[in-house]
Amino acid sequence: GRAPADGRRVVIVGAGLAGCLLATLLGRRGISVVVVERRADPRAAEPERGRSINLAISARGLDALSAVGLREQALSRALPMHGRMVHDAAGGQSFRPYSADGRRAIHSISRAELNRALLDVAASTPGVRLTFGRRLTEVDLVTGNLLFDVGGGQASTTADVVLACDGAFSAARRAVTFRTGFTVSQEYLDHRYKELTIPAKDGDFALDPDALHIWPRGSSMMIALPNLDRSFTCTLFWTSSEFAALTTRDEILAHFRKHYPDVVERAPDLVEDYQRNPIGSLATIRAWPWVHRGTGDAGGPDGGDTGGDDINGENGRDGNGENGHDGNGENGHDGNGENGRGINGGGGRDVGGAILALVGDAAHAIVPFFGQGANCAFEDCVEIDRCLDEAGGDWPAALAAYERRRKANCDAIAEMALDNFVEMRDRVNSRAFRARVAAEHWLERRLPGRYVSRYELVSFTTMPYARIPDRLRRQNRLTALAAAGVGGAAAALAAGALRATSRLPRRP
Ligand code: FAD
């Protein structure tokens, strides 16, 4: 049933993609929430001129958006991309559909516009209060005090529940970094990225808008996604030393003429873009646990050593199951389940100070090569909402369930995203890769719903990410046979084998 609010004061840090969606979901649940965002309200600012930055939204993101009634609006402002358009170094193009039936698409959407739409929905949700121009600087989980930088001055507020949706370089995560038992790592790629623009040509798209364009070049790679204004945003992935080695107009043009000849002729501002636009970095950030509690009666204000106790107390990660880790009633319905074995000795539920959960990129930033970071962050929000529902509104129980259910899934997509970089910049162009994709699509047509490629499982289903690698291992044997040209025999075998092992749900 619907969970009533339990009176805790809930603060969401960050009004980005995850923060806005989560605020809306909570508001709809009858929970009052304050959202604190560092930037000014982007809806009030002049619409940005110049670069439009887009992102690909697929089944998982759309599923989450439909939970707040935004799916159709998002789709109406997005451009479907039904496949990859691979550009070779001679300027030739070849199209590879993403799905066997050629009908499935991922959707290119303006990041700013999606954020504004989510802000609008959040702002119109009863119980949600958005505040801007406040940058979180400190969190004290013992007192529940949050400090903000407000245009040079300081402001503070208190919270019982802090939902950290403040992105890959989360200030909230920084605030718990030195707690005992907290592990965090950031793994940077040598590759960085720079955004470039292919503008509309004579009022029309200069490339096919129904594709995600890829220029695989081995050590470097460029991609381009279409925008509604008929431009394309290109992202060039390259190492920082290589970026730095190219500075003058002549060097830049010579390089692009050699490796990206069809881009040079379509990008009149290429040199200016290249020289002016910043270089972004790419990291996988892993953190654990995602949920932290202060305790009111133990330890010092640093929360350091109290943290270690908490970690086991609230979530029983050691597997001793005081919170029912088998997934059926992990939540301590009596409302003090979070005290677990009574470590804090304080007894009452609110003696435990505030509880903080990392959400979205703050918990698990991933590299962008599968186009899943936002999709995955949205899934987090939906999972928190679901866990709250199941836990009857009990925050500690709900957040414990959230991190337990999501961790393996987020780890899985982080790995797949890293792996997809190799596929995109290299393998996509190889004969073997093309043979594999052709074989996969052939199997998919022969075995609809039973044989599904990794790309499709990630992008076109909502199967938990963590189940995908296992499913693929079983399928791979079959692909090998089919790619070897065994044809009908492979199909028969595949059908039998998959039937035998098929405990898997059909593709939705
Ligand atoms: P963010 O969107 O980063 O939002 C964080 C919010 O918190 C921001 O509004 C920020 O201003 C605010 N904030 C930060 N610090 C503070 C503070 N101290 N106090 C208050 N507020 C604060 N994902 C996809 O699904 N598909 C794609 O195609 C895709 N392409 C990508 C391409 C690139 C080059 C990159 C870098 C990422 C891409 N992603 C993509 C990933 C996606 O951008 C992120 O996963 C997504 O934005 C995460 O959402 P979030 O709400 O967790 O964080």
Overview of the molecule:
Helix 12 runs antiparallel to helix 13. The protein is of the alpha/beta class and 508 residues long. Among the domains are: 271 residues, FAD/NAD(P)-binding domain (3-Layer(bba) Sandwich); 72 residues, no CATH class. The radius of gyration is 24 Å and the shape is globular. The two termini are 25 Å apart. It is built from 17 helices and 19 strands. The strands form 4 sheets. Strands 6-5-14-15-16-13-17 form a 7-stranded mixed sheet. It has a 6-stranded mixed sheet with strand order 8-2-1-12-19-18. Helix content is 38%, strand content 22%. Bound molecules: flavin-adenine dinucleotide. Flavin-adenine dinucleotide binds next to helix 1, strand 3, strand 9, helix 11 and helix 12. Flavin-adenine dinucleotide (FAD) binds next to helix 1, strand 3, strand 9, helix 11 and helix 12.
Topology overview:
Layout: E1 10-13, H1 17-28, E2 33-36, E3 54-57, H2 59-67, H3 71-76, E4 79-81, E5 83-87, E6 93-97, E7 106-110, H4 111-123, E8 128-131, E9 135-140, E10 145-150, E11 153-158, E12 161-164, H5 171-176, E13 183-198, E14 211-217, E15 220-226, E16 232-239, H6 240-245, H7 249-259, H8 261-264, H9 270-276, E17 280-288, E18 291-293, H10 304-315, E19 355-358, H11 361-364, H12 373-390, H13 395-425, H14 431-446, H15 454-460, H16 468-483, H17 488-501
Parallel strand pairs: 1-2, 1-12, 2-8, 5-14, 12-19
Antiparallel strand pairs: 3-7, 4-7, 5-6, 9-10, 10-11, 13-16, 13-17, 14-15, 15-16, 18-19
Helix pairs in contact: 1-4, 1-12, 2-12, 12-13, 14-16, 16-17
Bound molecules: flavin-adenine dinucleotide.
Residues 13-19, 36-39, 55-56, 135-136, 165-167, 171, 193, 235, 280, 360-362, 368, 371-375, 377 line the site of flavin-adenine dinucleotide.
